[in-house]
Design brief:
Chain lengths: 1544, 491
């Protein structure tokens, strides 16, 4: 959409716009996030102080914003206030523009062209529109600004900023001021279209920051502190407001954009709207049907959504529209960002009905989102269902509400704060200055929910699928046995799919798992007819938004959807919910039958054929497709509201149109002709069977899918006894369950919680489809390398069809299938018996000649269209140089890394062999995410080191201690992995051997789960924080951020560079050795060639390339691969599969089964004994590759690697006319060389290190000097100090802690050697990774991530004694505290936010209340909670114990996720003493009156505790105890208990 | 994969072998079937490798790796484990026309490349293959399946060995009318006359022929194309002709005394024996009897072993086998790594029998015959041999030096030459006008199996040189495909 507009203006673009789409960079991929805040006087008292405080908040949030290559230009900052009438009136008076009373005039603030003539034209045009809409223009004011303060890029692109004052003529009587606002809205929308279009085309400014009679927005491409300096109005004492909303932006790009700064007109937003594409599609579809008495001239305001804007501004557009068309702000927000209602048994029925009813009108705009909003009278904020953004607020004794992403942003003395709270997930905070109070969440929602009788409407108009009359058994619905194989062949079924995909789904209800990546060609490079689904790759969330925890945080997810026609969005009535409710979008045959045969009014279903006549050939398919569109139009005219697209009835004359093409084509056809919301589309097809297939159909507009051939196949299999005891019916049910679960995983990896939001969201990238075809049938899908058109799609269908219906042979059988398995006559794979054998022999015999034999085989395979790089070739006209002149093997080897494979996924032998080899050659091995045995930090006697140079930090934080981090040369934050981007991991119980458990800080024989997201990274600024934390934890290590290739990874990389990563790794989708769902391995993510090129180009374009090193990996196999990667922009190179093959891996792909027959990917001692790999084998491989790289360099006349980086001019796209499909691929975008922003930023490779800002930390400035005496003196020294702390002091104590660990190792210092006493509001990550011997005491409060990775240290936090509130009722620390803590203790006097002690593996913590998801994934340690717990407590908790005391609150049982844990009384005497000891220490450190009281009444208190303990954990502990009692010693008892568990 | 841990739980088991001494008294199968539950366990040992080297069928570093007909081994192994015999049979028959032959008489390169063989004993692939097909016949799952429609084209296949039969089978399935010509009195080529009935009994061959007849293939025996019927007339009577005439020209050993009586090519010995056995139960005397004789077998391959098997059943007096190669190592040598065909010392069934009868393995390694000794009647009486010092040079070629003073004389009244075949019979080819290549094999166009005469194709040993049954089947299938393409284009 937006690209198109840009494309038009390409030639005329002036310098202020975002760079045009070029190469692989596409501005539509841009993301942003930020810090937000507001301050309001509840009673509506206006003052300049409010404005001033708001600006203070902004500067205190600077670290949450971003800075580009030009450090003086921020990514944007802004403020929304009420209209400062005094200021304007005074100015008006002086300048001959007397203003009416406040509220009787409106102010539009505009960014306008600098060029005077044009500006005047625009202004005149605007005035004309004002006039036409019946208003008067009172005058114009040039906003006083001080351009001196601007940074370079901001200065260069500064617009002219003017305010227009308008009013209604005296004779016009508007009923209320909302009517006034509506007029202004129409004026603005018209102007945006009529003038904005010209401006857009010619690259000029015409942008309203606001246009209202109530509010005004001052914003720009500014750093927070520049905002008041630039807009001098803001410092004017007469500038008064009762409320102010501020925003500091962190954009993934650094391209100057004044417009994209927040606030928008109503909202500021922290987070991201994951479902934006679908939301916008649906809004556009709904526009046609929208009619409102409030906005009679609907034509004037279309399009409702300005598709050029960011996701946040589009959300703002929608909210504004809903509000002005008659809904209250709160109502509109509840519609767009509903609470998770479907699975909440506690929710009020009326409210539930409200949500359910509105789900028929609109799909959720799925966050993560913290949203603040204001119409100038009300101001409020809300969190989406996930609650992934921090949102804290204070209420003061002078009626102020201070809300922000962080606490401590406004200096306040403790006694003035009446209470402190946070927004909980799904909650709304609403301050009504009219009513002069905070309206509680429940009250607002209850009042909105009772506006209409939603319950009754639902009852009378919507119906559950289950309640529809049962369809009669119709025999013709079955595919008979003889025809089954023909149908299967026509739809391309293979034996592999039937036995390895469908069968496991049908028997176990699980999407099957595989490992070792993917090594067959992309669909567009394959010679075999491919299903259309294979030309699409799933997108996934990384960095700028988190994947969600769909399984452990199930309460927020929903697979429910409804079908039928949508009504008028703006006119609430019962007919709007005339719909059928489906529990899952996968339908059985009988269910589809029910729908198609239903006789309910307004729910007429019509079936349309997706077949085309074979005789029509290629063209026949296109014709049939258009016939289908016409038939759909006709059916709609005839009153159908459900269209079933069906390919039943294939025979020798009729072949099926690919279902995806039919659905998506029709979806967009109907959007274009405005009829989309009249119908729901269902698919009845023999084609889909995998999760990916069904996900695509839904993503492109289907509401539900009936994969009938799967069910027919299952019936056949059942009849043949291939399903064991499972009946055909059970098999079908299992299949539906498994696919639904798989779908949930697919949507969750994009951060989407409800299938309703996923439908039509098009979260895919096309690989190998021609752009015009994409534009027509898959509109707005990224497709960057060209590819096939409809003719090839038809060809592939016809090829399959002829296999099925070829004239002659008798009985047919399915082809073997060759997707994840090599077959002699099957698809090409990079790993074949030949390549595996020759590589292994070469490495074992140290025979370069054999290696060359191998690399020739691989390169040839690559060139026969196995990989994209195979389609590239080197410039043939280069002058060769002698080999000796090329930099030596040794220096090239320093750029080589082995892949991240955890100890746990591979054996000790394999893991250490790799480490030794990489250390010997000066490369780097990677610990993977499973921690590391500290014994490996000590070099071996022969000088070898088994220490992994790269330590990985993944979402599970296994074994991530201060000591682990300090032994790293590089710390890698794994945001995604090639095998399964956007997913978490799982180490099944039988693989958690005692030695694995030890390294990971868990219990043997208990399953380990790592979450899909890092729970401290939900957004780009969070990543910046983690990078900062880790840099503090080891200032000498480079910080590496691992991303996976996908469309938009370039802008993400730019954001990561701005977040100050030192290295960015772009992994290919096909690499990755880890176990994952097969559909993820194959279908999620992109080849590294595209992602790497995009990242490199975007970084160069942004002037950020010199700050970071780029690394790539993913089936990197030969010297040629390395050279191409370097030319596409990589400086470092990772190898994972190949070193494994060198060590003996024969690509069994059974890593997930623990049965690796060569002892690599197994922990089974019997199999490990078969390991024959040696460090030399890996060394030989790496040397061979480096040597081969040198040979290529010599041939190309290049002396050093640095010279080669980013040199795409040395690459050509091969002409391959012999391969029909590959010849359609266009890789020229990969070779694009972008222009930089300015010539002085022309780096094409790493040139200078990041500025991490460690010198200005509290630690370096104060703490380290203070503590110097501990190690400089006699050693026994103790240090005590009292210091102030602010929210800008982040990771306090971490750098100090790293120094202690460096000097004293894992054991740290004696307890309390260093005692630091802070007062104030601590910044994020207070006390992160602090080791033993350090005690941090905080009087005040703290933000998110307190005690992250705590490594033995001690933390105590309590409120100031002067605070008037009750500590245990008020929030004191933020979200995600003690995430990944490994040991140590903490005492928190007050309530903590969401996700307390996630993945704690050993810390002992006392707290007085926690939010949702407490103790999630915990594997060890003890947590005592003396107060409320939130929902979903102990989800995924597999170790450690929690003790909850909350007798007055809701029952623990109801709040707990009981899948893994038991609830018990606290009875064991020893344990009672432990808890009491912890509470006594809590009292000692925090003076908690609450705990003191409980201790006094100890006998009663004990009885009121609920002990939360994981079942498996308990069982293992008991077993260990039993073995100990029988005389088995410690370690052996563990092993014995594990073996016993394994057998069970 | 049914049972991921199968290979850890079960050990390899072999088919039970009948007592070597006792079985030399008959011509029955040497082995007894494994019970079904054992077979399923053996199937469970298969690891269902993602890269199944067993089905590779390619030459890697000069060694055959895996099955030349690319049997879908992991698929049917798993199905057997799951007790899905019928489905296993379907998968097996996709690639293999005659598993009942290969399951019995294939040296199983698949097992040599089985990944489990990397550090354990390979899966019993061959045994499972045989069990699947035997069960298929026993259960009546194998029924004639004549093609649904006929193309109207006629094809003649010359030669009824495994290549000819596979070719005929494939062409028939494609709808062409096929006539197979065999010069001997029985169909089957080497399957019938080259392999002793202890390995493949005649009813196994007959059963298959009968099935093919019922599917519409016509068999003509006792007619030699090129001699009885000229190729041209065949060519004009059919739309295409495929020569699968084998490599029947034996390699000779032209030593002093070669023309003495009692020195025979192995194939003559085996052929006559089988014919007499099948015609009369060896009652007609129309065979070369080893009874009471000292027998020397020259050659180290499977045919030599077949000669031993046969001679033992004739009750020979003594038996010795010369192998010019030194005794192979008991485990793979460094230059023979997995997944190459394992060149290791093995004791074949014939050797076991000989040992049972004479108390001694009959093989003499690194021994070469240098002279045949005879009596005044021109009958052979013995063989003089010499020991060899055999080693490989740097390039891997064998160098053999006679060890001075190592000469030895072995008594012999029957000497059997089992040292391989040169190629198809040159005379016959000349008469047919078929061109040969430098290896004296039928020359064909690359990938097309077509000879110098348009519409005349060649496959099997005649084109490839002497080889395994599986190669013959592969050649037959590929030639059929080439021929089918030819016929369709001619339409």
């Amino acid at each position: 959409m937006y690209d198109k507009a840009l494309r038009e203006s390409d030639t005329k673009v002036k310098n202020y716009r975002l760079p045009k789409k070029q190469g692989l960079y596409d501005p539509s991929f841009e993301h942003d996030a930020c810090g937000i805040g507001f301050i309001a006087h509840m009673k509506g008292n206006k003052s300049h102080d409010i404005v001033q405080d708001a600006l203070n908040i902004l500067t205190r949030l600077t670290h949450r914003g971003g800075q580009g290559s030009d450090v003086h230009s921020g990514d944007g900052a802004g403020i929304l206030t009420q209209i400062p009438h005094d200021l304007f009136a005074e100015w008006g008076g002086r300048n001959g523009m007397p203003l009416p009373q406040p509220g009787k005039y409106g102010v539009g603030m505009l960014f306008l062209p600098g060029e005077a003539m044009l500006r005047a034209t625009y202004e005149k045009k605007l005035e004309k529109i004002v006039r036409q809409e019946g208003f008067l223009t009172l005058g114009w004011r040039t906003v006083p600004t001080n351009g001196q303060v601007l940074g370079e890029s901001a200065k260069r692109t500064k617009p002219e900023i003017r305010q227009i004052f308008v009013a209604a003529p005296a004779h016009v009587e508007l009923p209320d001021d909302l009517a006034f606002e509506r007029r202004l809205y129409v004026i603005r929308k018209r102007a945006e279209r009529e003038i904005g279009r010209h401006a857009e085309r010619t690259g000029n400014y015409f942008y309203f920051t606001s246009m209202s009679g109530r509010t005004i927005v001052y914003k720009g491409l500014l750093l927070p502190e520049q905002l008041p300096a630039f807009y001098t109005d803001l410092s004017d004492e007469r500038y008064k407001s009762a409320l102010a909303m501020v925003h500091s932006r962190f954009s993934t790009n650094t391209f100057p954009s004044w417009e994209r700064a927040h606030p928008n007109r109503y909202t500021i937003h922290n987070g991201e709207i994951n479902t934006i594409k679908g939301n916008v599609n649906w809004m556009r579809a709904r526009e046609a049907k929208c009619a409102s008495e409030w906005l009679p001239d609907m034509e004037k305001i279309r399009p409702i959504i300005d598709a050029k804007g960011s996701d946040s501004s589009m959300l703002d557009n929608c909210l504004e529209f809903l509000h002005l068309s008659g809904r209250s702000l709160a109502h509109a927000i509840m519609m767009m960002i509903p609470e998770p209602w479907a699975k909440d048994p506690l929710m009020d029925e009326k409210k539930k009905a409200f949500y359910e009813y509105h789900s028929c009108l609109m799909e959720p705009w799925d966050g993560p989102a913290a949203l603040a909003f204001s119409d100038g009278k009300q101001i409020g904020a809300c969190l989406d269902r996930n609650g992934l953004r921090p949102a804290r607020y204070y209420v003061t004794d002078d009626d102020r509400v201070i809300f922000s992403s962080e606490v401590g942003v406004v200096p306040l003395s403790p006694e003035r704060i009446l209470f402190k709270d946070r927004l909980r997930p799904g909650q709304m905070l609403l301050v009504d200055t009219g009513q002069g109070r905070i309206i509680p969440d429940e009250e607002i929602k209850a009042s909105v929910a009772k506006e209409h009788p939603y319950q009754e409407w639902l009852k009378s108009h919507s119906v559950d699928l289950d309640h529809l009359p049962k369809a009669p058994e119709t025999p013709e619905r079955r595919v008979d046995a003889q025809r089954l194989v023909k149908a299967q062949l026509t739809f391309g079924y293979t034996f592999e799919e039937v036995t390895k995909v469908i069968q496991p789904l049908a028997v176990h209800g699980e999407d099957p798992v595989g490992s070792m990546g993917y090594d067959a060609p992309l669909a567009v490079l394959s010679d075999r007819p491919q299903l259309l689904y294979n030309y699409f790759k799933q997108m996934f969330a990384q960095v700028t938004n988190p994947p969600i925890d769909a399984f452990l945080e199930e309460m927020i997810t929903s697979m429910e959807t409804t079908i039928g026609a949508e009504g008028n969005l703006l006119k609430p009535g019962p007919e709007n919910c005339r719909r059928i409710r489906l529990k899952t979008p996968v339908l059985s045959n009988e269910e589809l039958e029910r729908i198609s045969k239903n006789r309910l009014e307004g729910l007429k279903a019509v079936t349309l054929s997706m077949l085309f006549p074979v005789t029509g050939g290629r063209k026949g398919m296109e014709k049939a497709l258009h016939k289908l569109f016409r038939a759909a139009d006709k059916a709609i005219e005839d009153g159908a509201s459900i269209l079933i697209l069906s390919d039943r009835g294939i025979d020798k004359n009729f072949a099926p149109i690919p279902a995806l093409l039919a659905v998506s084509g029709l979806h967009h056809h109907l959007i274009r002709n405005g009829r989309r919301t009249d119908v729901s589309l269902l698919v009845e097809s023999g084609e889909p069977r995998e999760v990916h297939h069904i996900a695509l159909l839904l993503g492109y507009g289907a509401s539900a899918v009936n994969p009938y051939l799967v069910f027919a196949t299952l019936e056949q299999m059942c009849a043949d006894g291939q399903l064991g005891d499972v009946s055909a019916q059970e098999a079908a049910a299992n299949y539906i369950r498994g696919v639904s679960k798989g779908l949930l995983k697919v949507i969750a990896k994009m951060g989407i919680s409800t299938i309703q939001s996923y439908i039509g969201a098009q979260i895919f990238e096309a690989v190998g489809i021609r752009e015009d075809v994409v534009d027509k049938y898959f509109t707005w899908t990224a497709s960057r390398i060209g590819g096939i058109g409809l003719d090839t799609m038809a060809d592939e269908v016809l090829q399959r069809h002829s296999r099925g219906f070829a004239a002659n042979e008798g009985p047919k059988t399915l082809d073997p299938g060759d997707d994840f398995q090599w077959r002699s006559d099957g698809e090409r794979h990079l790993f074949t018996p030949q390549t595996i054998h020759s590589l292994q022999q070469a490495c074992r015999q140290n025979d370069y000649r054999l290696y060359k034999q191998y690399s020739r085989l691989v390169d040839e395979q690559s060139e026969t269209f196995s990989t994209l790089r195979g389609l590239l070739e080197f410039d043939p006209n280069r002058q060769a140089i002698p080999l000796e002149e090329v930099e030596p093997v040794e220096s090239i080897l320093r750029r080589f890394k082995s892949g991240a494979m955890s100890f746990g996924s591979i054996s000790k032998e394999a893991h250490e062999t790799l480490a030794i080899a990489m250390n010997r050659i000066g490369g780097k091995s990677n610990s993977g995410e499973g921690g590391e045995d500290p014994a490996r930090y000590v070099p071996d006697e022969n000088g070898d080191s088994r220490n992994s140079a790269i330590k990985q930090v993944a979402s599970g934080r296994f074994g991530v201690t201060s000591q682990y981090l300090i032994h790293a040369d590089e710390i890698q934050i794994k945001m995604a992995q090639g095998a399964k981007p956007g997913e978490g991991g799982q180490l099944p119980a039988h693989k958690v051997y005692p030695w694995i458990a030890k390294a990971r800080g868990s219990t043997p024989g208990v399953e380990l789960i790592s979450p899909p997201p890092h729970h401290d990274i939900y957004s780009i600024e969070d990543l910046a924080e983690l990078i900062y934390d880790l840099k503090n934890a080891n200032p000498h290590a480079r910080i590496n951020v691992k991303l996976v290739s996908e469309a938009g990874v370039g802008t993400i990389a730019a954001g990561v560079a701005k977040a100050r990563a030192d290295v960015i790794l772009i992994s290919g989708y096909d690499g990755g050795t880890g176990a994952a769902a097969r559909s993820s391995i194959k279908h999620a993510g992109m080849p590294w060639e595209i992602g790497l090129a995009e990242a490199h180009q975007t970084l160069v374009l942004n002037g950020l390339r010199g700050r970071v090193r780029l690394e790539t990996d993913g089936k990197m196999m030969t010297g040629r691969d390395v050279v191409i990667a370097a030319m596409l922009g990589a400086e470092e190179f990772g190898f994972a599969t190949l070193p494994l093959v060198a060590m003996g891996c024969v690509m069994m792909r059974v890593c997930h089964l623990d049965t690796c027959p060569v002892g690599i990917a197994t922990q089974n001692p019997e199999l490990r004994a078969k390991f024959v790999g040696k460090p030399e084998h890996v060394e030989n491989f790496m040397r061979f590759v480096a040597q081969e790289v040198r040979e290529w360099m010599a041939k190309l006349g290049i002396r050093t690697m640095d010279e080669m980086i980013g040199r795409t001019d040395l690459l050509r796209v091969r002409k391959v006319p012999e391969h029909k499909k590959a010849s359609l691929v266009d890789l020229s975008a990969l070779l694009h060389r972008p222009e930089q922003l300015s010539p002085d930023q022309g780096e094409r490779h790493f040139t200078y290190p990041q500025e991490h800002g460690l010198d200005s930390t509290l630690d370096r400035q104060k703490l380290l000097p203070l503590c110097q005496s501990v190690w400089s003196g006699r050693g026994e020294e103790r240090v005590q100090a009292i210091l102030p702390i602010h929210n800008t002091d982040r990771a306090a104590g971490t750098l100090l802690g790293s120094e202690v660990t460096r000097r004293y190792g894992a054991q740290g210092l004696p307890e309390d050697t260093i005692q630091l006493h802070f007062h104030g509001s601590a910044g994020q990550s207070f006390g992160a990774f602090v080791p033993r011997g350090i005690t941090l005491i905080l009087e005040g409060d703290a933000n998110d991530y307190v005690g992250k990775g705590l490594s033995g240290g001690k933390i105590a936090i309590y409120p100031s004694p002067k605070s008037p509130f009750i500590p245990e009722k008020n929030i004191i620390i933020g979200n995600v505290a003690f995430y990944g803590a490994t040991s140590g203790e903490a005492y928190i006097r007050g309530v903590a936010g969401e996700r307390f002690c996630v993945r704690n593996s050993g810390a002992n913590v006392v707290v007085e209340g926690v939010g949702n998801h407490g103790c999630e994934y915990m594997t060890g340690g003890r947590v005592v909670i003396l107060g409320e717990i939130g929902k979903n407590f102990a989800a995924g908790m597999s170790g450690g114990v929690a003790y909850v005391w909350n007798p007055g609150g809701p029952s623990v049982e109801r709040l707990c996720n009981l899948k893994l844990v038991d609830l018990e009384p606290l009875e064991d005497n020893e344990e009672i003493e432990i808890v009491r000891g912890m509470m006594e220490r809590h009292v000692r450190y925090t003076h908690s009156a609450h705990a003191k009281k409980l201790l006094l009444d100890w006998n009663n208190t004990v009885r009121q505790f609920v002990r939360v303990i994981p079942r498996e954990y308990k069982r293992i502990l008991q077993a260990v105890e039993r073995f100990r009692q029988s005389g088995v010693s410690g370690e052996e008892a563990l092993l014995a208990a594990f073996q016993e568990r394994k057998k069970a | 994969m049914g049972k991921p841990t199968g290979f850890l739980e079960y050990k390899r088991e072999y088919m039970p072998e009948r007592d070597p001494l006792a079985r030399t008294g008959d011509w029955q199968d040497l082995y007894l079937p494994l019970p079904e539950h054992k077979l399923r366990e053996q199937g469970a040992r298969c690891m269902d490798c993602a890269v199944p080297f067993c089905q590779t069928g390619e030459w890697i570093d000069g060694s055959l790796v895996g099955c030349p007909i690319n049997n879908l081994i992991p698929e049917w192994n798993d199905l057997v484990y799951r007790n899905q015999w019928k489905e296993a049979l379907d998968r097996l028959l996709r690639t293999n026309n005659f598993p009942e032959f290969t399951g019995r008489a294939c040296p199983a390169p698949c097992e040599g490349s089985c990944v489990l063989g990397l550090n354990d004993s390979a899966v019993t692939i061959k045994t499972i293959e045989q069990a699947i097909i035997d069960k298929g016949f026993a259960e009546g799952w194998i029924v004639p399946q004549p093609p649904l429609r006929r193309s109207g084209k006629q094809v003649a296949v010359v030669g009824s060995g495994p290549a000819g039969l596979a070719c005929a089978d494939q062409l028939n399935k494609a709808g062409h009318r096929v006539t197979v010509y065999e010069r001997h009195d029985r169909i089957g080529g080497l399957l019938t006359y080259g392999i002793p009935k202890t390995k493949i009994s005649q009813d196994i061959v007959e059963r298959r022929i009968q099935l093919m007849r019922e599917e519409g293939i016509e068999f003509v025996t006792g007619v030699e194309i090129g001699r009885d019927v000229p190729l041209e007339s065949l060519r004009s009577g059919f739309d295409a002709v495929i020569l699968c005439i084998g490599a029947t020209e034996p390699r000779d050993l032209p030593l002093k005394g070669r023309d003495l009586n009692g020195i025979h090519f192995a194939m003559e010995f085996l052929h006559k024996n089988t014919k007499s056995l099948l015609d009369s139960g060896l009652k007609d005397g129309q065979y070369l009897s080893a009874e009471g004789k000292d027998v020397v077998v020259i050659g180290g391959g499977d045919t030599a072993t077949d000669c031993i098997t046969t001679a033992l059943r004739h009750r020979c007096r003594s038996l010795v086998q010369f192998d010019i190669y030194p005794q192979k190592p008991s485990a793979r040598s460094a230059d023979n790594p997995w997944p190459m065909w394992p060149v290791v010392y093995k004791t074949d069934s014939g050797h076991k029998e000989a040992k049972a009868v004479f108390g001694k393995d009959p093989r003499e390694f690194a021994v070469s015959a240098v002279e045949f000794l005879g009596d005044e009647h021109g009958n052979v009486t013995g063989v003089r041999s010499v020991k060899l010092n055999a080693r490989k040079d740097e390039k891997g070629n064998w160098i053999r030096e006679e060890i001075p003073g190592s000469e030895q004389v072995w008594p012999a009244q029957l000497v059997l030459l089992a040292i391989g075949f040169r190629g198809p019979e040159a005379n016959l080819l000349r008469k047919m006008g078929i061109e040969t290549n430098e290896k004296t094999l039928i020359a064909t166009k690359k990938g097309r199996y077509e000879t110098n005469i348009p519409g005349v194709f060649a496959a099997g040993d005649a084109r490839r040189g002497q080889s395994l049954i599986v190669w013959a089947i592969r050649e037959g299938r590929e030639a059929a495909e080439a021929c089918d393409r030819f016929l369709r284009n001619a339409r």
